């Protein structure tokens, strides 16, 4: 084998290895999007089968569906922490790695530090974190973590994904950004009515599961952005393969 052939052989294997790594990473990213989409469906459907639907996604921690809630958030959190993204350039304030790490840690905190639970009027601890830190502190920490997670995902959509995307995908990312923001604001407002509103307001928010659906809206927008981003990366892989196969 000549030196030119050896160089071409090594370059081809290097490109193939990179394609496999990116392809595997795309599959994990796609799984992340599907996890986000499926979690509200699973919680709602199985909740109806075994009892009733809860007023919010976080309230499912206090039901027999705790494994689904904690497991899904843990998978999302670990992936986001491991995701490094692209290197920060001079036009960016925060790196991909920092934003996704904050989001991942927030997801893990929201998973293992539960809220009080809508029906837990006795304030009795139901989890290890609540026994250690108290129910009220865990409740506040859980909601702050959930807020940080959603805002981090919104930032990623608007200032990371959309910045280098083609016009069509850019519009999708910006739409996801605004949906996450709107869903987060609506969640805060409805949750406030549920906690400190009049009896009629509390009943309305709980009966119509407003917190659950507003949270779901934000989670679905986050999931859609990752699925679209994964398809964009997949398209790049396809173009790279076409270029590598062209004769020199």
UniProtKB/TrEMBL annotation:
Alphabetic keyword roster: Membrane, Transmembrane, Transmembrane helix
Organism: Marimonas arenosa
Descriptive protein name: DUF998 domain-containing protein
Membrane-spanning parts: 31-51, 63-86, 98-113, 133-151, 172-190, 210-228
């Amino acid at each position: 084998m000549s030196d030119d052939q050896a160089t071409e052989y090594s370059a081809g294997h290097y490109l193939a290895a990179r394609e496999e790594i990116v392809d595997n990473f795309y599959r994990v990213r796609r799984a992340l999007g599907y996890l986000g989409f499926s979690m509200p469906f699973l919680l709602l459907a199985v909740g109806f089968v075994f009892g009733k639907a809860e007023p919010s996604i976080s309230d499912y921690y206090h039901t027999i569906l705790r494994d689904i809630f904690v497991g899904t958030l843990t998978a999302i959190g670990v992936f986001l922490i491991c995701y490094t993204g692209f290197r920060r350039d001079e036009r960016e304030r925060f790196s991909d790695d920092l934003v996704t790490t904050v989001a991942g840690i927030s997801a893990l905190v929201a998973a293992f530090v539960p809220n009080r639970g809508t029906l837990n009027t006795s304030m009795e601890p139901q989890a290890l974190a609540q026994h250690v830190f108290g129910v009220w502190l865990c409740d506040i920490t859980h909601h702050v973590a959930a807020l940080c997670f959603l805002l981090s995902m919104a930032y990623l959509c608007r200032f990371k994904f959309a910045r280098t995307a083609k016009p069509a995908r850019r519009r999708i990312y910006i739409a996801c950004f605004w949906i996450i923001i709107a869903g987060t604001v609506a969640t805060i407002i409805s949750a406030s009515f549920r906690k400190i509103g009049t009896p009629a307001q509390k009943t309305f928010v709980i009966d119509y599961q407003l917190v659950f659906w507003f949270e779901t809206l934000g989670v679905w927008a986050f999931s859609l952005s990752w699925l679209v981003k994964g398809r964009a990366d997949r398209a790049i892989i396809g173009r790279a393969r076409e270029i590598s196969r062209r004769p020199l």
